[in-house]
Amino acid sequence: MEILKIAAQHGAFNVRVFGSVARGEDTDTSDIDLLIDYDLEKITPWFPGGLLMDLQDLLGCQVDIVTEKGLSPLIRERVYKEAKSL
């Protein structure tokens, strides 16, 4: 899958989709929400901006990237329940 290849090039792994796309409620104007892990020794100097730009170019829509540490405690459980591995 091209998304996983791009993620790996930027030092990211364990890519999971959540939000409206994961729930099957997305529309033509929906963004794609991704939960990722990353390896500090493998990330690029442009991380996460480079990853974000490459994924938006590939997918042709707005992409939001979040890490587990970056998840708000208010939505953490919901995100974990919805998250689907790519």
Q: What would your notes on this structure say?
A:
This protein is of the alpha+beta class and 86 residues long. It has a single domain (2-85), classed as Beta Polymerase, domain 2. Helices cover 35% and strands 24% of the residues. It is built from four helices and four strands. The protein has helices at residues 2-9, 20-23, 49-59, 76-82, and strands at residues 12-18, 32-38, 63-67, 84-85. Helix 1 packs antiparallel against helix 3 (49-59). The termini are close together.
Brief account:
This protein is of the alpha+beta class and 86 residues long. 35% of the residues lie in helices and 24% in strands.
Tell me about the biggest sheet? 4 strands, mixed
Query: What's the structural domain tally?
Result: 1
Total helical segments: 4
Q: Structural class of the secondary structure composition?
A: alpha+beta
> What is the beta-strand fraction?
15-25%
Strand order of the largest sheet: 3-2-1-4
Order of helices and strands: HEHEHEHE
CATH architecture type: 2-Layer Sandwich
CATH topology group: Beta Polymerase, domain 2
- Uncertain ranges: none
The tally of strands reads 4
State the helicity in percent bands: 25-40%
In the CATH hierarchy, what is the class? Alpha Beta
Name given to the CATH homologous superfamily: Beta Polymerase, domain 2
The separation of the N and C termini measures 8 Å
Radius of gyration: 12 Å
Shape summary: globular
